[in-house]
Amino acid sequence: MAALRYSGLDDTDSEDELPPCWEQRTTKDGWVYYANHTEEKTQWEHPKTGKRKRIAGDLPYGWEQETDENGQVFFVDHINKRTTYLDPRLAFTVDENPTRPTTRQRYDASTTAMEILQGRDFTGKVVVVTGANSGIGFETAKSFALHGAHVILACRNMTRANEAVSRILGEWRKAKVEAMTLDLALLRSVQHFAQAFKAKNVSLHVLVCNAAAFALPWSLTKDGLETTFQVNHLGHFFLVQLLQDVLCCSAPARVVVVSSESHRFTDINDSSGKLDFSRLSPSKSDYWAMLAYNRSKLCNILFSNELHRRLSPRGVTSNAVHPGNMMYSSIHRNWWVYTLLFTLARPFTKSMISDCLVESGHS
């Protein structure tokens, strides 16, 4: 128990708690055996339950298995900068003949992406996250990177993006993470990003369309479109179209579009029930920041649903996700009224760590 606590992995199952003088060990091929220091003997069966066990899953994020000069295996925790000869996966052992669980694992609002991704190895997977230098975009990118994925932070501000990369590398020096320029308010930038990504000749297994603008004053982009609409929807729409062939060639792949429950509080049809294009990119006189945001989020969902219908037969799924009610992040920074509202609501909201886009972890 003391060794497990040292590894940060307490065993809370009292049935499996070892009697005095017993120690739990593992073989190189993942089987658990038990040593009795008093009687100087070892055995495969647990001294209390009589069960045989083996290690389940991969090492937790940040851990690495190495061998010392005497040929003995030890484990390095790069995040907390410590070593131990105890396999940290001992907290996640399974019976030799496991029975099928009777209930499905459940997650709640406090569950973090790191907990959901526990034991999953994304080595060899390529993930792109837009708007990943802060907020849930950063937490999503970090979670994937710490589980072995090659993560690309697609951001407008490269200074902040490079700082985010450094923060991830600070947690695990072997993380494969990089930043690339992507300004969704400029369609030429979206095109350049797609061209630069394709030039890498890598696959694309997960594309998280996370970047968004909220409560912006009315303005037009250089492409002549209302900024909220272009940043939140059209820029991502264009990005997916440009990378669609890469996604299909990388199947199974997934697109995750971050939407919002606020999509319910708007409409983009006119009185006759037909799509009103003037509502998507309104003039200054018809503009209201909250309504523009809601409409862009509705476009996200419609786009994600249609994308899934078209590409799922080719092995590419698409999911629209709601990150959480009044989730506290920096998205409200454009107007002091929203900043005050979000600050007052903060004690009742999800954290960015628990809000991290766990749906994308099941790709």
Order of helices and strands: HEEEEEEEEHEHEHEHEHEHHEHH
Runs in which pLDDT lies below 50 for 5 or more consecutive residues are 1-13, 98-104, 358-363
The biggest sheet, with number of strands, parallel, antiparallel or mixed sense and barrel status, is:
6 strands, parallel
Report Rg: 24 Å
Q: Output mean pLDDT.
A: 81
Question: What is the count of DSSP helices, taking H or I runs of 4+ residues?
Answer: 10
Shape: elongated
Helix proportion = 25-40%
What structural category do the secondary elements indicate?
A: alpha/beta
How much of the sequence lies in strands comes to 15-25%
How is the largest sheet built, in terms of strand order?
A: 11-10-9-12-13-14
Total DSSP E strands = 14
- Beginning-to-end CA distance, first to last residue: 35 Å
Overview of the molecule:
The radius of gyration is 24 Å and the shape is elongated. Strand 1 and strand 2 form a beta hairpin. The longest helix is centred in the middle third of the chain and has 23 residues. Strands 11-10-9-12-13-14 form a six-stranded parallel sheet, sandwiched between helices. It starts with a helix and ends in an 8-residue tail after the last helix. Helices cover 31% and strands 17% of the residues. Helix 5 runs parallel beside helix 6 and helix 6 packs parallel to helix 8. The N terminus and C terminus are likely disordered. It has ten helices and 14 strands. It has 363 residues and is α/β, with parallel strands linked by helices. It is found in: Cytoplasm; Golgi apparatus; Lysosome; Mitochondrion. Belongs to the short-chain dehydrogenases/reductases (SDR) family. Keywords: Apoptosis, Cytoplasm, Golgi apparatus, Lysosome, Mitochondrion, NADP, Oxidoreductase, Phosphoprotein, Repeat, Wnt signaling pathway.
